Amino acid sequence: MLNLSDEQIMLRDTVREFAQKEIEPKAAEIDVTMEFPAETLRKMGELGFLGIPFPSQYGGGDLDTVSFVLMMEEIAKACGSTTLSVAAHCSLCSAPIMMFGNEVQKRKYLPPLLSGEKFGSFCLTEPHSGSDAGALTTSATRKGNEYILNGNKMYVTNGGYAGTYIVFAKTNPAAKTKGISALIVEREYPGVVIGKKENKLGLRASDTRQITFEDCRVPAANLLGEENEAFKYAMQILDSGRIGIGAMAVGLGQAAMDKAVAYSKERKAFGQAISEFQAIRWYIADMATELHAARLMVHHAAQLKDAGKPFVKEAAMAKLFASEAAMRACNKAIQTFGGYGYIMDYPVERYWRDTKLTEIGEGTSEVQRMVISREVLKEV
Ligand code: COS
Known about the structure:
By secondary structure, the chain is an alpha+beta fold.
């Protein structure tokens, strides 16, 4: 890690203690029961973790993005599902309001989100619009002082528990990326229909839903930023969000590595601990090296953001590398455990299932490569 301040180290250690004591012991169980960790998230809100990079005037912690990624890594070491819920809540709901909201919107919506009193969601993806985010078809038609919202959103993290949704919709269907607007939608508005919870490979306790808007009337005052400008907002939101997902991947990969290293010292084969074998040592060396590199990349992207410098390329690189490095670490961890790695009595198979999402959510690895190559081509 890059020169952390005393304050950042203290925060990381506080979160680590909380995560190991309060989150980790429940992780295996909620993976099976798919129970959303609402109480844990509320506690995290009370402790100020959900407000880390936000100004204190809205109830935030006045801390930076580096502090946020330190928190994300520690939570991820304990429970992937909880971490994804935090990522969506902070990076995809609270952050957009902070970035593009007006003063009235910030004062109304941020305090309950930062304190964990309400949960937040981001509604961009649709059944036929994922990587091609500009192809979304949900519509918002202005009528007097309201927008009438109609459409179907998919893979909405925290969808069934959120009180506040950031919803992307076409306000000019003829224009692709130049006809999209973002609205702040409250769960109580008539026409918000919460679909069934998806049954997923991993991150099973995170709440993933389809959300449908049926003639949902949203006050025009809830328009986020300018009309028809929100495709760019979505891109900027995801640029930042990807740093958090990178940190989540590092945490999951580190947890897998830590378990594999401990196991390799205990497990005996052919008369010695398997940590004595070169094959296992090379796994350990590769896991340690790649996760170290991934962490540095995540921290670097976070530092660029904190310094107000461009970070689009570095955020995409950090997410791409961290998610793929973490997947490799999980593979090696399962291999180290052998048959025990393949059964649910040990957590490494869960880390593998949870990590897979980091190669897909907030932009697939293929989208990250598109973003990175575009940025590189611009530079030359
Ligand atoms: N920041 C600011 N503006 C950006 C931007 C960014 N990071 N990326 C693109 N834009 C702007 C472009 O500059 C362009 O503006 P102009 O038309 O004024 O020049 C506009 O947005 C359209 O951009 P572009 O032409 O690149 O759009 P594409 O349709 O080609 O889409 C990708 C580009 C694939 C990068 C985009 O659709 C994407 O990120 N998809 C993945 C979405 C995703 O991550 N979904 C997961 C959601 S997690 S719940």
